[in-house]
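Bench notes, afternoon.
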Amino acid sequence: MKNKLYELSQKKEDAKLGGGEQKIKSQYDKGKLTARERIELLVDEGSFEEIGMFVKHRAMDFGLDKQNYPGDGVVTGFAKIDGRAIALFSQDFTVFGGSLSETHAEKIVKIMKLAMKAGIPIIGLNDSGGARIQEGVNSLGGYADIFLLNTLASGVVPQISVILGPCAGGAVYSPAITDFIFMTRKTSHMFVTGPNVVKTVTHEDVTFEELGGADTHGQKSGVAHFVYDNEIETLSNVRKLLSFIPSNFKEKSIQFEFDLDLSAENTKLREILPDNPNKPYDMKEVILNLVDDGDFFEVHKNYAENIICGFARLGGMSVGIVANQPQVLAGVLDINASVKSARFVRFCDAFNIPLLVLVDVPGFLPGTEQEWNGIIRHGAKLLFAFSEATVPKVTLIIRKAYGGAYDVMNSKHIRGDYNFAWPTAEIAVMGPKGAVEIIFKKEIDSSENPEQELELKLNEYIEKFANPYIAAERGFLDDIIDPKETRKVLINAFDLLKNKVDNNPKKKHSNIPL
């Protein structure tokens, strides 16, 4: 037995070295950690239980029979984060550049299947040169197997992709199907085709960072939901994200203990809005004064900044927040904002996370660029997402709620459970000036003093329509509240709705306007 145990110990030590000391040094030189170091940073200390450590590839061509490393370039297993079970894989760039082979893929698929059975989140730490060319179609088939499991697991358990190195070609589609993508500046890159191919085909000169770096995908494409400066910060925030979400679609997020005295009135909320309704303000200031401990975990922070999405707690309960941002493009809904928020709403609905919607929206962004690129179809995605969602949904209209955007932002008409407004709310088909110029066009044009007549009609319209009381009279608003009482009102609303049950008609699946 002693000899057998020694042999086992030696084999495990060999496996932990991956591609060897020289390759590990090369990883450090690039500013990257090893696959196992990343796991240690991510999970609770001593909780990782590896499976598949001794798996090796079965390929014999192109000299692969002479290069065979235990684990075959990916570390897989199960661990705990804040005491909750998770499944994970961590690609090892020191072994064949982390390239995906048939057996590499089999290891990932195995833990994904087990995670779905166990009802636990799946986290992928990606650092790979792509498909292992020497294995040809076997490698491509391995990718397809993973894509299928990503698709089947969608909405069953949360899936998080962490890009910590290259992720190119077909490899990008697995993260794209998952719920959230994290990237690290300077060391992580995602693209379908690299700079050399781009130059050959389109004659564009572009760097790795410009084409598929973290900031490119965090700001321009919206592919990355979270971008951080280094791997330690990135992995720390993966842990934070998990604290807001449940382990599977049958569960709810963990509710923190909450002192009711902390829901006391907050007079700061009275001071945020400017007196002039056309002046911008920072909606994040409203959010930070509403949520527990001023702690807001924003998603897609630097993409489509005219809408804000993220997680927070109200009265200890995890909620997803969608809010217009008047500081950027006056808070209008455009294509990118609609798609960003629609996907966030659908994630929250899939995993039983209540939604808080803060509204200050003058409408949809006009213009040929938006129309020709399909604002009608993309805007409908957000409408569809809110309409389809059956989780508790609470809306607060802060200021403007004009036109179709009023309907889209979780109005009472699309099953908003509680719909509140501040006295500053303006609910109308369009802004006062535009409305007056249409309604009173003849009177203004025929007046001896058109400007004075416009001003007169404008004041008349504002007094009559630019307020929340007509909507409240019709029951489209449940209450108009003093801003300082907002936090308490929202906490009570979500507490009442915590056991809400709502169902959509029986169907195979819906057909969102993609």
